[in-house]
Design goal:
- The chain is α/β, with parallel strands linked by helices and 440 residues long.
- The chain is built from 13 helices and 24 strands.
- Strands 1, 2, 3, 4, 5, 6 and 19 form a seven-stranded mixed beta sheet that branches. It has a five-stranded parallel beta sheet with strand order 8-15-9-10-11. Strands 20-21-24-23-22 form a five-stranded antiparallel beta sheet.
- Helix 3 runs antiparallel to helix 4.
- The relative contact order is 0.11.
Length: 440
């Protein structure tokens, strides 16, 4: 009998398995496909590889602005782009497999089915464990009327496309939708983006969605908010206001739902709410000894959240008190420029600093956007939002401040190297303290 069996080897499952091995827990990992899950194989990593390629292409088109004259014309090799994406994914998958082998973590191939407390079935064989972690992730939601043969694509199919697209319609203005709209617009495709809510990125502050809409329009993306697809036929989408959109392909990115195949929650007595499994602070479900993490929960559907939840579950199994601080979870959206947020969007005190006043950003030709920091009445940092170059990296200064209860004074007094983008964080904190140096 194992101490622990984990069903699913995505960023929640494989991280939990490695942490379990570190703590001396005898663990087995069940996976029906490749380790790494959606994020590594068909999600975060391949998408960000495309982001890098698209941004390089866009940057090269502006080379003359930097005093570099390119002879001839730039062309895109989509087949090579797919190959490079696959190379990056393969390298990372092999790296995880090596770690699992080194840690002597047993990987059981096949689809796992929870048959009861401490019991998992894989390919007709039963395995027993003192504890079980469910980490089966999520899958795209594609309503029947949007699933049109030879027209509808999901993100996986789009990432494997080795031919250019003349036009693309994207249904859904959440993180996946806006990232793909940004990527394909950079690659020269005519993109139409449809979101039924009043603003893009509806789970974030409305002002961010409004700013993003403006940024995408500048890149040639046709954006429709407060609209939804009413009728769809090959090559044509009719919106609820009668607008007709014609496109070569349609990407549906309206959301994801938990993968509960093999987990009969009702029969096993595992409580759910609105289709998501409910857990305690330790990640334990209502069925003793069974834990759930990642996209199975109503927490943010982010790879790093799943990883942290996996670590928390394992540490509690091993007798270590551990919790997730959901107030300090950073979000990153890989549009161009990037968007990142953490913590609260409003506070009693606020400071904002534009990248247009930052030397490093100006020199790089990426001066669009800002850093905004918010704090409570006592000056304790409660949130940060960044739109601009490397926002996904800079946001962690805000995450550290929120997680550790740092004050505006402590952020501002920390010496930031010059010239760097991170100076904008310090300047925003200075601004909230009414002593900004580089703002008139």
């Amino acid at each position: 009998m194992k101490d622990l069996i984990i069903i699913g080897a995505g960023p929640g499952g494989y991280v939990a398995a490695i942490r379990a091995a570190q703590l001396g827990v005898d663990v087995a990992l069940v996976e029906k496909g490749r380790v790494g899950g959606t994020c590594l194989n068909v999600g975060c990593i391949p998408t960000k590889t495309y982001v890098a390629m698209a941004e390089l292409y866009a940057k090269m088109q502006e080379a003359s602005h930097f005093g570099i004259d390119l002879e001839g014309t730039l062309s895109l090799n989509f087949r090579r782009m797919v190959e490079r994406k696959d190379e990056v994914v393969d390298q990372l998958v092999r790296g995880i497999e090596r770690i699992l082998q080194k840690r002597k973590i047993e990987v059981i191939p096949g689809e796992g089915r929870l048959t009861g407390p401490g019991s998992v079935e894989v390919a007709g064989k039963s395995y027993q464990a003192r504890n079980i972690i469910l980490a089966t992730g999520s899958e795209p939601v594609i309503p029947g009327f949007l699933n049109i043969r030879d027209f509808t694509m999901d993100s996986t199919a789009l990432l494997d496309r080795s031919e250019p697209l003349s036009s693309l319609a994207v249904i859904g203005g959440g993180v996946v939708g806006v990232e793909f709209a940004s990527i394909w617009a950079h690659l020269g495709t005519k993109v139409s983006l449809i979101e039924m809510q009043p603003s893009l990125l509806p789970t974030l502050d409305k002002k961010i969605g409004t700013r993003l809409k403006s940024m995408l329009k500048k890149k040639g993306v046709e954006v429709f908010t407060s609209r939804k697809a009413e009728k769809v036929a090959p090559g044509e989408i009719i919106l609820d206001d009668g607008t007709v959109i014609r496109a070569e392909k349609m990407l549906v990115a309206i959301g994801r739902r938990p993968v509960l195949k093999g987990i009969d929650t009702e029969k096993l007595g595992i409580r759910t709410e609105n289709g998501f499994i409910t857990v305690s602070e330790t990640m334990e479900t209502s069925l003793k000894g069974v834990y759930a993490i990642g996209d199975l929960l109503a927490s943010p559907q982010l790879a790093h959240v799943a990883s942290k939840e996996g670590i928390v579950a394992v540490e509690n199994i091993a007798g270590i008190k551990s919790r997730v601080n959901y107030n300090a979870i950073p979000w990153a959206v890989f549009t161009h420029p990037e968007i990142a947020v953490v913590g609260a969007s409003e506070g009693a005190r606020e400071g904002k600093f534009p990248f247009s006043a930052n030397g490093k950003a100006l020199g790089a030709g990426e001066s669009e956007g800002y850093v905004r920091i918010v704090a409570d009445e006592e000056g304790k940092v409660t949130g940060m939002e960044i739109i601009g170059p490397h926002a996904s990296d800079l946001i962690h200064e805000g995450a550290l401040a929120v997680a550790n209860g740092l004050t505006l004074e402590e952020v501002a007094e920390t010496v930031h190297a010059h010239p760097t983008l991170s100076e904008a964080v310090a300047e925003a904190a200075e601004g909230a303290l009414l002593r900004a140096i580089h703002l008139a």
